[in-house]
Design goal:
- This protein has 192 residues and is α/β, with parallel strands linked by helices.
- The chain has seven helices and five strands; from the N terminus they run ααααβαββαββα.
- A five-stranded parallel β-sheet has the order 2-1-3-4-5, with helices on both faces.
- α1 packs across α2 and α2 packs across α3.
- It is elongated, with a radius of gyration of 24 Å.
- The mean pLDDT is 81.
Length: 192
Amino acid sequence: MKQRRITIKDVAREAGVSVATASEALNGKGRVAAVTRQNVIEVAGRLGYTANRIAKNLNAGRTGSLVLSVSPMASQPSQPGLQPEWDVEYYFRVLNGASVQAFQRGFLLSMLPSPSSSTSFLSAADGLIVVDPSDDDALLAAAIDAGLPCVTIGRNSGDLSWVDNDFFTGTTAALEHLSTVRRSRPALFLSE
């Protein structure tokens, strides 16, 4: 049988204080006597209490979630309904990396199933990450209009924050691979 989650009410009852006092003691806020604060912290530790992250975020006016989307231009498959095979590993790594970093910072990451998904997801998010943004990305435009913090993976045409690929490492790895596979001196020609 699944054990019931310990709540702030359990901590308050065990510590002999109100729920508000227990909450203030655990959050380091309010006018709580040092002895009371220490008692509440000890009781919470003994009971194994952990704050409900969702409730804590809602109290702070946040949802604790981020939304990740792949821009429509980047997700155009060669065959309808299929993502090109060469994209799968790249997008999986982006999603995995974003998910790990979001979780370490107290966020849950949701990936929109398609670029045409409803913008209603935006009202339940604290931020939007768009992979390979296009200039006409409707979701990105809606997020900007709603004042939602946005970042893109890949340069964008606006004034948004962005991160980019590690082209130096990728280019070096490609040249090393060519050098290993074909015993010659590979060269890389770039346009301006």
